[in-house]
Each structure stands twice: as C-alpha cells, then as structure tokens.
C-alpha cells in the first residue's frame, strides 16, 4: 500500500494504467474498492479518470471523472453529433473522453426508472452558454446506445433553419418547403447509427413518391432510407415517413422480432419554434412550420406515442434573434414552444464545480495539453479559475493556446 | 472699509502677465528618473533689472497689508493667515470658470511672482563690484570658491584633531536618503545665471568630495541647501473605510475612472470569487479575455483571488475603458484590506495610478487629432 502511495505521488499516469490493469484482471468488485481508496488517499492527485466505460454503471461516485468513449461507438453513434471543438479534441488526443457530470447522471437515472408503456417523457437540458449541455446529451445518448435503443439524433436543429442553399417547394404539399441536402445528410447519418434496426422494422403502409416510385407495405425500413438517400428530391418526405413509422412501432411488442425503445434527441430545440433566416422566392421570411423537416420533428415532439424518451437540449449559440443573456426554457423556446413542450422535465446544467475543474485541469496536464510552464503552478491554476470562471467551453478555449 | 478693501484687492497680481514673457518650459532631460514637470524660467536671459529693488520692497509691503485686509474680510485672524488660506479666499471671492489653472486670479508673495534678477553689477565708473565679474558667471565661480573654502576648513580641522590624537573616521554622517541633488535648472534659478552641463557636473563633484570627508557634518547646513527632499508618494492615497455588514462581513466601496468610463464597486470579504457587473456575470459581460485579465490583475497581485465577492456597476465609454476603470476601482477598494508594504508595492506596480490618457481633440484644418488632409504638392 505504501509503495502504491509513493508511486502515485510520483507518477500519476503510471498508476492509472496500473489500476486499469489491476481492475481488468480482478473484476468489478475490486474496482469499487480501488476507486474509493484512491480518492481517500490523496486529494492533490485526485482521480480524474474512471475505468468504468459503460454509462449504465456510472453513478455519483464517478462525478468529475473522465471515461473513454470507445472509438467504434463514436464512429457509429456520433457521425455528426458531437460539437466540432470536441471532435478536434478527439483527433488531437486520439481518444474521446467525456466527463461524468451530475446533469447527465440525473438524466440517465430518469431513463432507467421511466415506464415505457406510457407516453414518452420530455427532458430539456438548459443552462448558460458553454456549460456542457450538448456533452451531457451525448453522454445520455451513449447510454441509450449501449442499452440497444434506436436513436433518432438531430445534432443541431439550427442548421435546418438557416444557411440553406436549396429550398424546394414540397412535392407532396403545396405550402411547404423541402430541404433536400439537409434531409439526405441526416438520413445517411441515421443509417450509420441504426444499421441493425433497418432490416428488422417493416413499413406499415404504402408510400408513393412519384409516378414510378413507391414503397410497398411491409418493406424493411432500410429501403425507405435508401430511397431518401438516392432520390434527393423526396428526401424530406422520406424523413417524415421514417419518423412516422418509428413513432407507430416504438415499444410495440407484437411487431416483428421484439420491441425497441426509441430515443429522440434534439439539440438546439429552440430552433423548432423560433424564426428562420430563410427567405421564400418572393422575399418574405419563412416560418418554421413551412419547412417539412421542422414540421415532422415537431410531430415527434408530441407525446402521442409510447415506448421511448425525448431528450433535448436548448442552445443559444446557434439561435437566431435571441439575446445572449437568454438561457431559460421560457426565454429561448418562446410562448409557442413552451406550450408545445409542456409538460417536461427540466435539467439544469451549470459551470464546473471545484472537483470537476480539478479533474479537467488534471486531464489536460495528463495529455500534455498545457504546455506553458506557468500553467502547471498553483498561481497559474488560480488564473485559469478566474479567467474562465470554471466554464467548460471557455476553459477549453483558454487552454488551447497555452 | 471699502477703500481699504480696494487697496487690498489692488495688490492682487495677475500672474500671467509676467508669466508669458519669461517662460522657458523644459523637461529635465539630464536626470531621467525625475518625472515631475517643473517650469523653469530662463532668468539670466531677462537681462538686467526690470524692477528696482525699491519697487519689489513696495510690492512686498502691499502684499502684507493686503493679506491682513483679506483676513479681515474673510473674518479670520490676520496673524495666522497662511498662503493656503489666501488661495482659498481668492478662489471664493473671484470664482473663475477658466480651465487653465494658471490663468486664474492668484495672490502670492512677490518673491514667487517677480522673477529673481541680477542687480546692476558695476558702479558709476564702470568698475564691477565682484572680483569674479570677468569670468562671466560670477555667482557660479564664487560658489565653487565657497565650497573649496569649506573643504580646506574641514581639512584643517582634521589636521588639528590628528595633532590632538582625537582623529576618528566614524563621525556623524549626514543623512542623504530621501533627498536628491538640486537640478541644474534649480541651481540656475538660485544663482540667476546660466551654467553649462559641465559646470553643473563639476559642482556636484565638489559637493561629493565634501561629503566624502570624515568631518563633513560640520558643514551639514550648507550641504542640505543643495539637496531637495523627495516626497513619499504612497502617503497620498486615501484608503476607503472598511465597513461591516450586519453578519460581520467586511466590505468596502471604491470608484474608478478611465477615459470617460466610470465604475463603482463593492468588495465583500465572503470568500467565493464571484464577480457581478451591472447585474451580469463577468464572464458574459466581458467576453474578451483581455478585459477579464485586467479585472484579475489586482486580486492576483495581492494574492487574494478567491477571497472576495465583487459587485460592480460601470457606465460609459467602451469595453476596454470599462475594464480599466473597474481595475482601478478594485485596486482602491483592496487598499483597505491590505498592509502598508503591499500598498507601496501596488503603487509601484501601477495599480493605483489613474490612467491620464484621454481622447485628443480634433483640430481644425486636419482630419482628426493627428491625421492631416492629403498633401498635394501643387
């Protein structure tokens, strides 16, 4: 035990690996013991990594610690889902490490306890800019993925309401507009994430796309998705069809080979009810309802189906025409959005507390990200605390040039 | 009373009359560590006497009488009426809206107003009074002669002591800390003569020589005439009072200004390190890193970064100026929580100095303050 203490004081990284090996060989029981003894031993070198890779088993014990997302999972689950800066970080550090934080744990515990025969519960993650809402959402989604749910993940709804190059009038309904590029992109990502479900789920009705193309009843969902990917013109309608199918079949135990739970995750929820920056051909502003994609997603938000959960996060950074100080659901969603989403379970996300900051700092030190010699000292740490006010994104940007 | 009042008023002299003619403004380039801006008059260039000695004496008399009248007018005791009281009374009786402080009405002793000037240095037959007149700088060389006399006197004293056998090297030394040699311009003012840089260096060398002798304390008074005391800067700052909350938490208020931005803060000793500005968190009020660094500097310098809660309000100007104003306000508020030595350190770090830079005025005939219109050769 003494040797353990000495070695851990000298060389934190070595002890991490040592503990990792130890646990892998001896199993879960010792892992619990190992973690506790580490945290009681020395506070300055507090533990910032946990070897518990499965989000199912994350608990309050693990708050503030980083766990690694397996690379295969990242590729499948988050082809488009993670924030761009985090993707850069994954590339630089060669690993994707996510911090376990109380809001995510809260969300996961709700998901574990929820009753899936009833209509889905809506969870909204809200908080100030840069506090980690998208990351918490990703953590919860990882949990759903490991549990084998079907994931419908809209990484940023704001991308659908602004900067669209092509806006086609809808083929099916005259008053709506299609966004073929965004829709086909999303369908591709959906395919990557949920490959194994595509052959199992069958369509319940016939869909007619054009005079020559139609999808029959009873076809696997994969075909529907391919239809959308190949034919850009009808891709937005395909999205609508896919969502409808999933809504009808989620949680149903009688269809096909077993039930699946549906997780609908939307980041940037306020885009659905806000304003768009798109213009129609006669130069008037587009309303969100007039966009097919938005309309379909709104239908998903209603809790008239069962067998899943709706996880959402608000976002001020991409939002249009909202002041920077707005972060509460009522401010960002607006009246219409709020009425539509009610009742929901709010989960607030805030800046790091002492322990979490400590862990983030140690993680950066471990990865040799903080190159400046002053940043390793106590003084430098105090400066970092002050300058970032323990806000995750600001801290990350600050450390990027150190 | 009215008549005597008039007489008193007549003795008040407008300074800018004599000021404008003999003004010779120079920064002291020779001694770079002295940063004060003194106005030096080139006295020797004025030429021989413009005002006779009787005229000056009469002015002094009138000034004294006027002083007493002024004291009576203000209802104060004429015996103990100081120059400060005179200034105060004049400012009260003659309120002036002029921005230039030197152009306002002033009543000072004629010695300060009329420049020192040389009396006529030769008699009716044209023979000079002083034996060094033909050197051209008679006062300077006579001063050098005096200093050398003193050196010789001390050497004689030393020899006497040696003869008696009472010679000791460790006699009382003159304290020179906190004072500096007079500048060349100040010496010129005293001698009413122009001297060159080499002359000045020679004089200082001689004084140093005088100081290096063991028994120099005999001439202490003479030497101190040539030294000027430096003011202790840090005693000028008024430390804001430390007040206590009902819960016993110490807090203090302070203000700060920078370039038309005004800030006022409350510094509370509660121990969390939150900073709220105009109701918002400082992270969102100052998204720019540089401004947050400005806020951080005083706290980090004193080493109390996580200790205080700051509540501030700031208005005016731009984001950088607001950050600068807040920084000054924080440093001032910290004075009441910090020891004397730290105050001096803060002053030397420049935390307590108000930045005097202000937007320069646009001049007519130019695009801006400095930028000129396009210059066309023809």
TrEMBL record, chain A:
It holds the Pfam family DAP3. InterPro entries: P-loop_NTPase (IPR027417), Ribosomal_mS29 (IPR019368), Ribosomal_mS29_met (IPR008092). Keywords: Mitochondrion, Ribonucleoprotein, Ribosomal protein, Transit peptide. It is found in: Mitochondrion. GO terms for cellular component: mitochondrial small ribosomal subunit. GO terms for biological process: apoptotic process. One of its GO terms (molecular function) is structural constituent of ribosome. Belongs to the mitochondrion-specific ribosomal protein mS29 family. PANTHER family: MITOCHONDRIAL 28S RIBOSOMAL PROTEIN S29 (PTHR12810), SMALL RIBOSOMAL SUBUNIT PROTEIN MS29 (PTHR12810:SF0). This is Small ribosomal subunit protein mS29.
TrEMBL record, chain B:
Pfam families: Ribosomal_S9. The keyword Secreted does not apply. One of its GO terms (cellular component) is mitochondrial small ribosomal subunit. InterPro entries: Ribosomal_Su5_D2-typ_SF, Ribosomal_uS9, Ribsml_uS5_D2-typ_fold_subgr. Its main location: mitochondrion. Residues 353-378 are annotated as: Disordered. GO terms for biological process: translation. It is found in: Mitochondrion. The keyword Endoplasmic reticulum does not apply. Keywords: Mitochondrion, Ribonucleoprotein, Ribosomal protein, Transit peptide. One of its GO terms (molecular function) is RNA binding. PANTHER family: RIBOSOMAL PROTEIN S9 (PTHR21569), SMALL RIBOSOMAL SUBUNIT PROTEIN US9M (PTHR21569:SF1). Belongs to the universal ribosomal protein uS9 family. This is Small ribosomal subunit protein uS9m. The lineage of its organism: Eukaryota, Metazoa, Chordata, Craniata, Vertebrata.
